Amino acid sequence: MAHLNFPPPFSEHDQIARIILGLIIDIRLPLNRSPARLLCAVRALLDFLYLAQYPLHSDETLELLEDALETFHKNKGILIDLGIRAHFDFPKLHSLGHYQFYIEMFGTTDNYNTAYTERLHIDYAKEAYRSTNRKDEYAQMTAWLDRRERIMQHDQLVKRHLERWSSTKPVACVTRPVPILVYPRTRKMAIQPSVRRVTLDKLHHDYGAVNFEAALARYVILRNHPNTTRLQLEREIQSFYPPFHWSTFHWIKFTHRDPFTRNNSEAQIIDSIHIQPPRHDKRGQIVPGRFNTVLIRLEDSNLVDGHTRTSSAVGRVRCVFTIPPAYLEQWFTQQTRPQSTHFAYVDWFTEFPDRPHQHHGLYRISPLLRNQQQQSSIVGVEDIWQSVHLLPSFGPVANREWKFSTVLDEAPHFYVNPFSSRFMYLSLY
């Protein structure tokens, strides 16, 4: 599964919020109580947290915010029934009811955070106290703060006059871009491959691309002849001979530029997809392979409205490669030659259900099998939309033999986690 990294200081809280719903889906409650109210309460609170963080709000999103809070209040009694809490009379929960009002009055919540008060406590209390002799400190602290503010105001006045006298040019009007929910992403691939001359046997055994030749043949044939029947396709696959060596890439990265940050000219890496076979570290120990799951746009995708659930599917990337130029000329015509320069071999999962679960709201998928065989194919890297975090369906009792490196191979069912990022949350809901 994709590894989740979050910046301090709230990394622990962020990680818990991203996985807690998946951990309690199949949990057994005392006295055989139904988990429906617990799932609804947790999901509603998570929806509220993610909606409240939007950098742009409309009447619709604010209504969704209030609906999520109302759903939580309707189902929160299960936490008292289970003995988790004795009451809900505490300020932080009460403050949630004022979010819509404050957003409408003062703007979105990305304009402020709770760190401001902590910073002011340092400036107005700790620093002021250190300047006293620890006797009758309140009067000394007040005088110290008053003098400090007067000096700061005088300093700002002097700076304004100096700037006015030193510059005769009119001050240019700075136009700021309009904020959007998610900024455009740029896909970034390494110029040089991670490994050269990878044999077909290594693709099969190290990368897990067991049907690489058949999948590549199917991609090339259908690219040139889209109306080929299944019988003709199987016949032509038998006479398809790919090269023996390939160049592979072990990372796909996505970057974006936030115009509201201080260093808005620098692209920030916001998503990484790892496609790494097992290897040995410096101590000679085996490091398990890592093959991330991704959201892939299908050929009939229509992403104008940004809603990708009905036009995409989940796949697990086994290898990323390039086709040698000589074979591009040999296999494709000028009209059928793909625009992509990088290609991915992916193992497919089942399509999204028509609706998410009525209580926890997650989509359940499974590896796509036919006759007990994993279905795989070749796609262009430009069709890979983003990484996807899958939560295994643990059941009432978790399988202790599952590991992070094997759970995608051993678990029969998964839930698509929408809380891995705001981008994923927007894509699914």
Task: Provide an overview of this structure.
By secondary structure, the chain is of the alpha+beta class. Helix content is 37%, strand content 18%. It is built from 14 helices and 18 strands. Strands 2, 3, 9, 10, 11, 15 and 16 form a seven-stranded antiparallel β-sheet that branches. Strands 1-4-5-8 form a four-stranded antiparallel β-sheet, with no helix packed on it. Helix 1 (11-24) packs antiparallel against helix 2, helix 2 (36-52) packs antiparallel against helix 3 and helix 10 crosses helix 11 (230-237). The longest helix has 30 residues, at 137-166. It is globular. The protein starts with 10 loop residues before the first helix and ends with a helix. The model is unreliable at 1-10 and 301-309 (pLDDT under 50).
Cα-atom Rg, whole angstroms? 28 Å
Largest sheet: 7 strands, antiparallel
Q: End-to-end span in angstroms?
A: 21 Å
| Percentage of residues in strands | 15-25%
**In DSSP terms, counting alpha (H) and pi (I) runs of 4 or more, how many helices?**
14
Q: Give the averaged pLDDT, no decimals.
A: 87
Q: What's the number of extended β-strand segments?
A: 18
Helix content: 25-40%
Overall morphology: globular
Parts with pLDDT < 50 across at least 5 consecutive residues: 1-10, 301-309
Q: Structural class of the helix and strand makeup?
A: alpha+beta
